[in-house]
Amino acid sequence: MSPTHTAQLMDGTGLARRIVEATATNAAEISQRTGVAPCLATVLVGDDPASVTYVRMKRARCAKAGIRSRHIGLPASTTTAELVDTLTALSHDPQVHGILLQHPVGPGIDERAAFEAIAPEKDVDGVTMHSFGTMSFGLPGFVSCTPGGIMRLLDEYGVELTGKQAVVVGRSPILGKPVGMLLLAQDATVTYCHSRTADLPAIVREADIVVAAVGRPRLIHGQDVKPGAVVIDAGYNPGNVGDVDFDTARTRARLITPVPGGVGPMTIAVLLAQTVEAAAQQCHGLVG
Ligand code: NAP
Asked: pLDDT band at residue 4, thresholds of 50, 70 and 90?
């Protein structure tokens, strides 16, 4: 790398805009053909300000793409059984094509039990064990949105994955684990790191592709990025800071996602695209 090297930015905002435009066209086509507009149900427990903002943002994007949204706000005192009932009712409601349970749902609720109440054909956020299974087996189904968005970004920038060393830092069921499975499906050699990993920097130094999915500001230092590596920063920490130290990493990486404007917008774009896909599948055969 020359001393003045600067990585190319992976523009998630631009790619997400194009995905949402294509999604809006598909949504309009379904509405016109069947008389039914695709509909996403958003479920929010409590009033955590970040979660409220995320849900508002997702609903606003839905509206722009011609997707209806139905919001169900539940009090923080909601029990697991009550939340499961709500999600089960939405799973059976023919007017609803996709379901988003905003997470984390907060203490006192069994989040996994809640996720599993979402019918697989409406799991447009890709959070159920069914979706993880179909994704891992390469079968039709919905992917977890952030991993799906990351794979689209890699594809958009022509990143070759076959035979490459991919290091995923983080192993959560909705982000780290599934993105590793998607990279594996494209023949990358995948290493997962987590809070118990010994010598994280040494492993990151070997990576052709680094996916940071932790939630620790600037955990990955530029000095540990292999020259020419592709760096995907899914982390989002207070103050618009990612999990990668952007200023130092960009002097060594070939491609890097900015925070914000990298992975974040892609997550919502995939959510909308999968909602319209779900509507297309559920409205198949309907004529308006
Ligand atoms: P999470 O459920 O808290 O998982 C964090 C993972 O990081 C865990 O696997 C944990 O390991 C690992 N970890 C924690 N400290 C570590 C350390 N010092 N070294 C190595 N690994 C460590 O978080 P998440 O839901 O996956 O989210 C991760 C980040 O992505 C957050 O910043 C979140 O805001 C962001 N995010 C962004 C989007 C988006 O749309 N851009 C979407 C979802 C999440 P253990 O398993 O050992 O505990």
From this structure: confident
* Ramachandran quadrant class, 259 (left: phi over 0; alpha: psi -120 to 50; beta: rest): beta
Q: What is the average pLDDT across 116-131?
A: 98
Express each pLDDT in 143-167 by its tens digit: 999 999 999 999 999 999 999 999 9
Residue 27 Cα distances to 39, 63, 250, angstroms: 10, 11, 38
248-267 as b/e, with b when 16 or more CB fall inside 10 Å?
Answer: bbbbbbbbbbbbebbbbbbb
Q: Quick check: CB of 191 below 6 Å from ligand 1?
A: no
Position 135 confidence tier, pLDDT thresholds 50, 70, 90: very high
Q: Which of 123, 125, 233, 245 is catalytic?
A: 125
Q: Is 195 annotated as a binding residue?
A: no
For atom 2 of ligand 1, the residue with the nearest CA is: 172
* Superfamily of domain 35-121, CATH level 4: Leucine Dehydrogenase, chain A, domain 1 (3.40.50.10860)
> What is the rounded distance in angstroms from the CA atom of residue 170 to the CA atom of residue 6?
26
Please say if 122 is a catalytic residue.
no
- Mean pLDDT (whole number) for 1-13: 91
Q: Do domains 35-121 and 145-263 have the same CATH topology?
A: yes
Report whether 46 contacts 13 (CB < 8 A): no
Q: How far is CA 153 from CA 32, 105, 147, in A?
A: 31, 28, 10
CATH topology of domain 145-263: Rossmann fold (3.40.50)
Going from the C-alpha of 231 to that of each of 5, 27, 192, the distances in angstroms are: 15, 33, 15
